Structures are given as structure tokens and as C-alpha cells.
Amino acid sequence: MAQNPPNLRPDLAPKLQLREPTRDDQPKIGMVSLGCPKALVDSERILTRLRAEGYAISPDYAGAEAVIVNTCGFLDSAKAESLDAIGEALKENGKVIVTGCLGAEPDYIREHHPAILAVTGPHQYEQVLDAVHLAVPPSPDPFIDLLPATGVTLTPRHYSYLKISEGCNHKCKFCIIPDMRGLLASRPQKAVIREAEKLVEAGVRELLVISQDTSAYGTDWKDRPSKAPILDLARELGSLGAQKDLWVRLHYVYPYPHVRELIPLMADPANAILPYLDIPFQHAHPDTLKRMARPAAASRTLDEIRAWRSECPDITLRSTFIVGYPGETEAEFQHLLDWLDEAQLDRVGCFQYENVDGARSNALPDHVAAEVKQDRWDRFMEKAQAISEAKLAAKVGTTIQVIVDEVEDDGATCRTTSDAPEIDGNLFIDEGFEGLKAGDMVSVVVDEAGEYDLWGKPVA
């Protein structure tokens, strides 16, 4: 039972898990999926189409006739990781098709790896399929190559990501996501609900709602049914849990005023919407936020947090922050630490600022030295860790519901309603776990707490 390290990049998706059966004569395609959960959903859609066309799928290069590398371009370090993965795929396999966010820069990729077969940008599924067809012709068997209604999934059977929109309308100076993925384009609500219903029917116990800007869902529609369609979607998703235990977790929720209307749904135990908000605050000092081209009302944000907790005391607040942003002074950073002390967020991730090719923040003056960024990251994480440790210690002796992610010889790895996969903590059961299996929801008495994780025993 491995504990999550506290320095995990807070934008990463879980590792691929493939459970698809194969037959001997199927052409096999390898898949390497990097980056965030949104990229993982793109990989699932590509593989669903390939599986329906008769391809077998491999989570690596072994025995594959070609490899798709779904890249990340969010940070320069992520770009370097993507280039390394492409190079490794070329070395191990030779036939490589590149897609994903870094695929929006084809010349950059070909400059480093001219031998790749094709490059496509994010969510360009048809172009990826065309490239696969050229490299490895399909060989479908209509009597065998049948898919369940949910298609190919790359997560454990009991949870799944539910992407509700593409793109983003924000113009944050440090981010190039709108350049890579375009402006906000929301999926029709009926399509989202239909996918959610199929997932639940297939046994999914937790839906993780993702997008670039979840609270802006539907605001791109010309004839939208209400001012904030995310509220309508949340109500309908929440009602899916009426007949069975279901968790619906909201990620990437910007703190617009209408977010307060989500809180009553979270406070209602009969509603499937978890009391969990993942909000990318990024910083707290108004001058830093202005240089980021972000909303600069951190003081009002504290008022919102107090209002949320007043209406839903059990709410878990997770966020990510950037330290060492160009022009960040020691006073601005100390303001962030003081804000964090007051906000008392439950789950926190942190990036050290990096230049990203094409980002407007590159041109800002007064870039922070690497050693100063590292020092501030260390101090920030020390503060966040102390808050986390105190909050978890307060849970000792309480009874909470958990979902089981994995059962091994030495115990079960679980998550509480406060924990999203990979980016948050775990609850470990090392006694009385023998009858448990992945996807079970059980009540647990917490008997020990650490900096990020809990330990407990199932209620007899």
C-alpha cells in the first residue's frame, strides 16, 4: 500500500489500466497517455474507436505494430517529458503517431523527432484514426469486436472521468491552453447525462466531472436555458444517485458567484454531488493575480469560503497555486502564506512557475530566481502540510464512508469523499479488509492520521 507523495504534480491523470480482451489475429496499437485527466478522456475516445474497428490495445510498446503518444504541453517540463516519451516510443517501436496538446506545435515536435509518422492536435480524433489506418490497416470482425455501451476505459471500473466541455475563455498570462484546445465548447447536457447514465449502469460508483472551466459550462450557448447551466447539470447528475450509492465529484470550478448555488446540493445527503470543490485559486495577492490576468478579489474569496462552510460544514476545498511567478515579491508570497492560514484549505497542490513557449508571462519583468522559487515552494508546502495534518488528526475517532480503490495482500487502499484519485490522500485499511474488493463503499472508523493519509478499520 503506497502512500501518495506530497510533491505529485497536481495535474496528472492516473496511470492507464487496460482490461480489453484480444484475439490472436488482431492488429495491436500501443498507447502512452501523458498529462491531465482531460487528456486521458481523449485517449479513451481514441481507443474506443480503434477497438470498434478491430484493433487490440496495449498500454505500452510490447508487441504493438504502432504507438500513439498522447502528449502534454502545459509546462515546459511537461513538454520535455512528452518529447522523451516520443523518443522512447521511437526507440522501442519505430512507428509513432503523436497527438494531444503538444501536437498543436507540429514543427517543434518534428524538429526533435523527424521520424514520427504523424502529428495531430488535441481532440482531433479523426486525424489520429486516419494516421493509424495508414500505419496499420484495420482488421475488424463484426461478430467479435463488440464494445460495451461505455466504450474503452483507462481507469478502474469503479470510477470514471466525465468531460463536460473543451477549451477555455480565460486569458491567464501563464497558460496556453486556449491556444492548444481552443475556446470554451460545452457538450450538450443530454449527451453528458446519457454518458453518465451508461457509466453508472456499467458499474461506475464515482463520476469525476472535468473540463478546463467547469463552472462556465454552457455559458457559450447562444440560447442557454439558464444563466448558469452548470447548476442544471449538477442537479441532474446529483439525482442519478437516488437509486444507488454514487459519488459525483466536481473538478476545476472557478469561484464565480453562482458557485454558491451548488453548495445546497453538496449539503444534501440524498444528493450524489460530493461536498468537494476543486478550485484553481493560483495565488492570493491582488497584484500577483493582476499580473496573471486572473480575478484579483482574494479577500472576497475568503468571504465566499466562509459562506460555503457555513452552509456545508463538511465541504472539502482543494486548490492549486503557483509560487515564484514573475514579479512575486517576498511580501506578496508572505501574503499568500497568511491567506492560506486563514483559508485553511483541505487539499493543496503547488507548482513552481515555469516559462511556457507562447505564454505572455514570459515577457514580464523581474523573473524569480530558481533557488528562490524552490525556497518558496518548500515553505508553501510546509504550511499546507501542517494544515492538512491538523485537519486529518481531527478525523481520528470519527466514522466516515470510503470507496475501495485496490485490495492487496497487506491491506486495502481507499479514498474518502475528500479525496480525488491520484491528487489527494488515501485511507488505508490493514485489518479486516479480506472481504473487500475494488469499488466497494464501506464505513470506516478512523484510528490514525498522517500528513496526507488516514488509517482505519471497517465498521463491524
Automatic annotation (TrEMBL):
MTTase N-terminal domain spans which residues?
27-137
Question: Which domain of life does the protein's organism represent?
Answer: Bacteria
- The EC code for this enzyme is 2.8.4.4
Q: By its UniProt entry, which Gene3D superfamilies does this protein fall under?
A: Methylthiotransferase, N-terminal domain, Nucleic acid-binding proteins, tm_1862 like domain
Give me the ranges of the annotated region Disordered: 1-29
Q: Which residue range or ranges hold the TRAM domain?
A: 393-460
> What residues does the Radical SAM core domain cover?
154-390
Per the UniProt record, which residue ranges are transmembrane?
none
As its record notes, the protein acts as a catalyst of: L-aspartate(89)-[ribosomal protein uS12]-hydrogen + (sulfur carrier)-SH + AH2 + 2 S-adenosyl-L-methionine = 3-methylsulfanyl-L-aspartate(89)-[ribosomal protein uS12]-hydrogen + (sulfur carrier)-H + 5'-deoxyadenosine + L-methionine + A + S-adenosyl-L-homocysteine + 2 H(+)
Q: Where in the cell is it found?
A: Cytoplasm
User: Which SMART domains does this one have?
Assistant: Elp3
Alphabetical keyword list = 4Fe-4S, Cytoplasm, Iron, Iron-sulfur, Metal-binding, Ribonucleoprotein, Ribosomal protein, S-adenosyl-L-methionine, Transferase
Q: Which Pfam families does this chain map to?
A: Radical_SAM (PF04055), TRAM_2 (PF18693), UPF0004 (PF00919)
- What is this protein's name? Ribosomal protein uS12 methylthiotransferase RimO
Q: Which organism is it from?
A: Litoreibacter janthinus
UniProt lists the gene as: rimO
